[in-house]
Amino acid sequence: MEQKLPIYLTKRDGDLWLTEDERDNLKVSYRIKEIIYHQSSPFQEVMIVDSYDFDRMLVLDGIVQTTSMDGHIYNEMISHVPMSIHPNAKKILIIGGGDCGVAKELCKYEDIEHIDMVEIDELVVQACREHLPAVSGRLADSRVSFVFDDGVKFVASKQAEYDLIIVDSSDPIGPAEVLFEKSFYQSIHKALKGDGLMVCQSQSPIFHSEVMKQTSSRISELYPIVKQYTAVVPTYPGGLWSFTIGSKQYNNPNPQKLKEKETKYVNEGLITSCFLLPQFMK
Ligand code: SAM
Question: Is 168 assigned a catalytic role?
Fold first, then answer.
């Protein structure tokens, strides 16, 4: 008997298509070669599929999170840009980030002593380590400590502990909704050291401008320095994606920090030019 497909997977003329329901009037379909992994966790439906144009993709509840083809763009930009601003980040917290791509990028810095990665869903980490090596690099670095818990609960218990906190969340629906709330940003501020900084993905400047503005205004209430930057990620709605930094002390990126790091997207020029915003974002 054929396995029942979730509503976002359909067969058309013998081909399998994954359709991401972006919004009422926008749906994006990817032609799929094969379903590699499919399990339900208590939090979401976790799937890894092999697609024609983006190779392997992590899909949570029907939403594409990262792919072998363009995952490096997002993961490098959310990691190396804040690392270039903090002169001496040694202890880092990642909230979310189950595909392990952010932790993989951070492990390129020998000076980092410890990374706590707090992911609510252990199944995402297992699936990506095994079936999405282009993104996860099958991460195994003794400096990374995995905690499978709610990021909100974890960060609320910390005080002045981290140099850098990276919020690598999924969209603000389901388990990640709380990762966009004001009280969560307040806990992050408390968990950072006196010269610490945080960065989060703040969604599409085109389709989610209200989330982006709200993130910027919530972070501005807490930090003297707030900076937004962008990157183009083809599998995210609209392509253009925003990131928001809140910093207690450090302001300027130092491109030298990127020297001799092996990257595919970010380079010394982009470390500073990513802060040049299009007119409508200003
Ligand atoms: N780069 C991707 C993007 O922007 O779409 C998202 C990366 S990662 C897959 C997001 C992770 O956040 C998911 O694995 C999800 O399980 C995790 N997550 C969602 N809510 C969470 C929470 N409350 N605490 C910790 N992790 C959470």
Answer: yes
